[in-house]
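Slide 14.
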Amino acid sequence: MINLEVPGKLGVLVSQARQSAAEIFRPNSRKYDQAEHTYPVELDVLAALIDGLNASGAGGAGASGVRRDKDGDKTKIRNGANLATVLGTIEMCWGDVGLLLSMPRQGLGNAAIASVANDEQLQRFAGKWAAMAITEPDCGSDSAAIRTTAVLDGEDYVLNGEKIYVTSGERADAVVVWATLDRARGRAAIKSFVVEKGTPGFELVRLEHKLGIRASDTAHFRLENVRVPKANLLGDPEINVERGFAGVMQTFDNTRPLVAAMAVGVAKAALEETARLLSEAGIEIDYDRVGPRAPAVVSTYLALEADYEAAYLLTLEAAWMADNSRPNSLQASMAKAKAGRSATEIALRCVELAGSLGYSENSLLEKWARDAKILDIFEGTQQIQQLIVARRLLGKSSAELK
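Slide 15: predicted structure.
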């Protein structure tokens, strides 16, 4: 049985993440929202602290803590790195999701490396800050439609293509680039490659101006005959049609709960701030008076809180299953779909409940409403997650259910 209470051993981590969010992220949230593309220097000390927690095995809020325990003892219940990372991420994103995405060495590319790299690659790329490049101008949610190519030439792969919306792309030390070895062989030929910054032909085209998560840089890259060592291909280089997209999906199984956790953190922040503003206006959240007996604003708030709880529990379940060596593709997509949609709806409704205060820059509610939307989009849109869930529940393949 899964017990989704916060494990006692992770209480200190959650407390430290909350303290960091309250003392570093919140005070600088508006500053870097308004100073888009400015690197938040306040994060350097905090990033070093998280590096130390990850190195000691304590785990932290960073993506580098994520790795599936493939050989764990399935007879024992474990609360490991995935659950620790998700819980820490929730608290950090209660502070500011854009600043979390700007943390050195904690990019989604780090999660990809941690998910599928072999032991030698884990050691070689340790300490690197890695972004992840999936989306292309002609390829959004359908990752199988990737057109960036990787052709083996001697001891190198030669990459050609274009990548957009690369989170932390300019600041990172390396970018995990998804490319196809053979477009004719479909999903099975999609592989990920670690491309180090400064590699000839790897060109930064521009940085994007965005609706939300403005503290985080979002880059557009062009790859022209970029030579990447064979050893930088993550995972198995063989094209296994029987496994299909499984190798790439393993990355998503670990990163989607992370994005869900980000969304849960934003929703939590919005709800707490709204409760505070309502209290100041003389409206108390009374859990003993619900439904038609409660004021309309309270009934709305309680419905939003219930939505938040559902997203929170689904997110913990997906992370817990990864820690305990159980397949979690369905749960990862359910958590991502629910949390992404809930965070967006909760943040917008909280703006409404707070009235003029919610729409003003005097409160962070309007910022959270802008930040939340991307969490329903990247790492697979709402529609893609629902499609994956439907395929899993109905036992349909991607060819049978499009």
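Speaker note: The first helix runs from residue 11 to 34.
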